[in-house]
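Continuing from the previous page of notes. For each protein in this section, the sequence appears first, followed by its structure tokens. Read the first protein now.
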Amino acid sequence: MEVFYYVVFGVLSIVVAALELSKNNKDRINTSSAFTSFKNNYLVVYSLMMAGDWLQGPYVYYLYSTYGFSKGEIGQLFIAGFGSSMLFGTIVGSLADKQGRKRACVTYCITYILSCITKHSPQYKVLMVGRVLGGIATSLLFSSFESWLVAEHNKRGFEQQWLSLTFSKAVFFGNGLVAIIAGLFGNLLVHSFSLGPVAPFDAAACFLAIGMAVILSSWSENYGDPSENKDLITQFRGAAVAIASDEKIALLGAIQSLFEGSMYTFVFLWTPALSPNDEEIPHGFIFATFMLASMLGSSLASRLLARSAPRVESYMQIVFLVSAASLLLPIIMASVVAPSQVKGGGITFAGCFQLLGFCIFEACVGLFWPSIMKMRSQYIPEEARSTIMNFFRIPLNIFVCVVLYNVNAFAITTMFGMCSVFLFVASILQRRLMMIVDKPKANDWTPLSERNTEEDPLNI
């Protein structure tokens, strides 16, 4: 079955290369040299930031296990990370609108570097502090950089359509190519150079430090609403009012939480799904294959976003339906193929089909990221962008914590079925968003400074 892995990887590589090389004028966006320089600077920084994140991922569990911690103790560390992202990360991330997005991006670098340093200690309490810091950094990574980009893009007067080009390239490189290279580099450090499981964390800290230097030397500061008289509670209340008073923002938040919740659950499930009887599978190579599938999705997204039709609100309905169908494969295979009772060996025939389905899901992930970024740039108000984006992550983190805590309580097919239902609901909500997107903006959120306290009892 080893040939199967190479065939899948090879076919995906050819398709991605063909998509990139066959782009014509309709698939490309004509831009200016000033924008190209701005875009490339952001892509360098974002790729360095994602390298710092991807290098750590495959080795967190492994590092904890080498320190002698049990599965339960490791689970508690992971829950602490997501819980920290939900509680502390929401607060710190929301400060970006008031204190500055550049400053928040630098804070991400410092926080994640400190988290990497804690990995040198085998002490459980020190590692717990590292997980808390890592949770805060995650919230900053997925809100502050995008908020800075959108504000800076608009401040420099670039065309709105050009923003989608930066989004798609950021996903192609940062969430695809960099992930593959980081996985191979981490494997080189740990296994080829025998530097131990802490080496990828040291390398991640170096990449983060380089990225921080680029930010400090080349980025300008921008803010959401820097009003001096607005405290954090006021920001939170303003974000809540924005979400409650604009159905588009509320729908966007629900769609994001449903998809990302399913995506993070998939991260925990794909290994036991492909090796239910401890079959030997090349985890690193499969991970690289998934990232290649994600690159395929982001390449498709760049073509779609470069055109006026179909609209992002339209084609994302299909993306959610396809992703829901792809995660039904483990359930279908369990019902039509008798489970093997043989321990060990290579991947089974059912596992091969599931792997293909998982690659389709990862392609949908590659389509999702630039598309959701595009919609967020359109519908989330600038003055509270970081705060609202961190609000969106609260239900996501709650969901992931619940899944982690109960991961052994449900059958794996039940978990995949739940994810498929969530993705189907996301498609329905996306349909609703498309239906209302062209309606008059009578209920859209207005800046807090323009609200009339006598007419609006929710005014703050």
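Done with the first. The second protein uses the same format. Note its length before scrolling.
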Amino acid sequence: MPFINVETNLPASKFPEDLLKRLCSTLAAALGKPEDRMNLVVKTDLPMMIAGSSSPCLLMSLSAIGVTDTAEKNKEHSAKIFQFLKGELGLSDDRILILFYPLEPWQIGKKGTVMSFL
């Protein structure tokens, strides 16, 4: 059950529903997770700076169980995600950052319990 938060200074018009669906599909494939388990929030039009510049940029936080817990896995995920974001949004490598967070089942509440018991 991955949780993806995207923060960007790009306008909302750059993120139509079909792009969000393609992003979810790309993320699901990259992480090896079913699409119906993906949770995505995109916040646009934010005042942001990366590396001291307010040029168009994007910061993604990605939390998941079992797939973001090693440098090797995150390197593979990063390559696939960067390729998508660069192609779809026209951003360069130096304007995208991804933060990976490993989760444990007991850290996710669902249906009045935690994932450990579901």
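What the second structure shows: The CA atoms of residues 14 and 116 lie 37 Å apart. The chain has a mean pLDDT of 97. We return to this in next week's lecture.
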